[in-house]
Amino acid sequence: MKVAILLFTSAAILLAIFGLVMIYSVSSVQGEALNNDGYHFVKNQGLFLVLAITVAILINLIPFDSFFSKGIIYFAGISILIGLIIVHIPGIGREVNGSNRWIDFLGFRLQTSEFIKLATIFLMAWWQGQPWRKNKSLLEGLIIPSAVLLVIDAGLMLQPDFGSTLMLSTICFLMMIVAGVKIKYFLCLIPFPIIAFVMKVIADPLRLKRVTPIFELNFADSVDQEILSDSLYQVISAISAFKHGGAWGQGIGQSVFKEHYIPEYHTDFILSMVGEELGILGTSLVAIGVLIILICGTYISIKENDFQFRLLAFGMTLQISLYSIVNTGVVSGLFPTKGLAMPFLSYGGSNLLSTFIAAGLVIYVARHVMENEYQEGTPAHDPNFWKM
């Protein structure tokens, strides 16, 4: 377990530091142009990195027997409601690109959905992980948690935040399956969200414009280049950046595509900048880091005997790894663009803070495993490990 914790923690911190380097490399020119400070973006990200690591450490100071207490459960539920409502309050919520997802707080702009997702995963772990919970029953296992999730999803869609809604639903449904909900219930339920998804895409010209060209790009025999260049400008530019980087990359700070070719290059599409400047080698190192987090987080979840903590570690590991996989798919042209950041790497305080909270919770569960091993007298446990 000690090795899993060290690998997980090292991968998270190294990815975040690597993200700082890449943010400075690709955003210094823009920082100078917009704020007369080439270090503007990296300083903001660095400040949030210190805050994020501090919060992750503070989480690990919470006593194990108090973690799923009523006070924390109520706090999580109330936080979700506040997060869904506050973005619509004039003077507090901020509309950006037609979406009400942000609030201004202490001079920074925060995206509330990042923390709503974590609180929802926490509540799902609490509900499904209770020893007396009848997860195989239709009511307790599926209907009640799905009803709560539906309300939260509806609140996210009002912002609107389609990407977060889809990802949160996927994570929660996977947690339900791990909790023991019968697969046949999901088989009956699956058609409804699929139909709702298709109808939502068809009814929204913007989403239809994002989805249709992706299918053409990946599956069509002949492709209308004019349509692709209009609808998938970011994706095509990102793919071109990967090609320009080749195996070894053009070198740190030598990106060509950051010069107005790729919008959001320091946020959602930062992986394409890694590919251009550091080549396949750089993107492979990022992939290895994410894989370490996925493997270690899953291992920690499996080793946990308390079902609530097990589901918590599983959900938070999914939160990090699934977002990394989907972001990679978007940048590579496999999925439609959804505005989903790359964990640890993308510029953005909300994403970085929420990612480290998720990572801190996985480490918290790992410490709980070690505590139980020590109490049971497992020889492999070193009681002085956390005193180093």
Key attributes of the depicted protein:
388 residues, mainly alpha, 3-stranded antiparallel β-sheet, globular, disordered C terminus
Describe the protein's architecture and organization.
- With 388 residues, this protein is mostly helical.
- It has one domain.
- 69% of the residues lie in helices and 4% in strands.
- It has 14 helices and three strands.
- Strands 1-2-3 form a three-stranded antiparallel sheet.
- A hairpin with a 2-residue loop joins strand 2 and strand 3.
- Helix 4 packs parallel to helix 6 and helix 11 crosses helix 12.
- The longest helix is centred in the N-terminal third of the chain and has 34 residues.
- The two termini are 16 Å apart.
- The C terminus is likely disordered.
The share of residues in helices is: 55-70%
Bin the strand percentage.
Answer: under 5%
Q: Biggest sheet, in brief?
A: 3 strands, antiparallel
The total count of strands amounts to 3
State the end-to-end distance: 16 Å
What structural class is derived from the secondary structure elements? mainly alpha
What is the N-to-C succession of helices and strands? HHHEEEHHHHHHHHHHH
Q: Name the average pLDDT.
A: 85
Radius of gyration: 21 Å
Outline? globular
What's this entry about, in short?
The protein is mainly α. The chain is 69% helix and 4% strand.
Topology, please?
Elements: H1 2-35, H2 40-59, H3 70-86, E1 93-96, E2 99-105, E3 108-111, H4 113-128, H5 138-157, H6 162-179, H7 183-189, H8 191-203, H9 205-219, H10 225-231, H11 233-245, H12 270-303, H13 307-331, H14 349-375
Antiparallel strand pairs: 1-2, 2-3
Helix pairs in contact: 1-2, 1-12, 1-14, 2-14, 3-4, 4-5, 4-6, 4-13, 5-6, 6-13, 8-9, 11-12, 12-13, 12-14, 13-14
